[in-house]
Specification:
Layout lengths: L25 H33 L5 H13 L2 E2 H8 L3 H13 L3 E6 L2 E9 L1 H24 L2 H4 L2 H12 L6 H7 L13
Antiparallel strand pairs: 1-3, 2-3
Helix pairs in contact: 1-5, 3-4
Length: 195
Amino acid sequence: MAHDEAAPRQVRKPSGSAAGHAPPDRSALDLEAEEVAVAVMAASRLLVAVSARALSSIDDTMTLPQLRALVVLESCEPLKLAAMAATLGVNPSTAMRMVDRLEAAGLVDRRTNPASRREVVLNLTDAGRDLVGRVMAHRQTEVSALVARVPAEERAGLVPALRALTRAAGELGVDPFDEVRRIGGLVDDPLARGR
């Protein structure tokens, strides 16, 4: 069923039985959940577009998945290659190809872990750290401008609604640092001595 995201439908608010009203109509609850899902998907597309614009304004050769890898690495470095793959939800060979490209671009430093020669440890280079910082600053500026255009009375409701959505996400909303810690991908920086 197609929906026009620009013209929201009026959704009847379900009433609770605690106020002496009849129990909420199941179809009204389903309609309300569907309307919220459509709005969240539209907001998601907007945020992806903001990220893509921020990235292309800084480096038009990089992809959003590569930026995501750099952001995870920036949050968790030094990081094992296998942990990066798990955190990104890709297989190790895909992560390796991505790291190959990022290393060739001078954004990632990859070395063998002296403590375990079978492991590869990743760090951002100064150029990689700078790129992430500039893209995030650009994205923050654009998101702040968007939020400022929302009328104040509507803006106040965004924070609790977005926090509720984040809480509902549970494991889907995992912070990369927590995910890396969970899978044991953080390493003491064995490479710092060689720098």
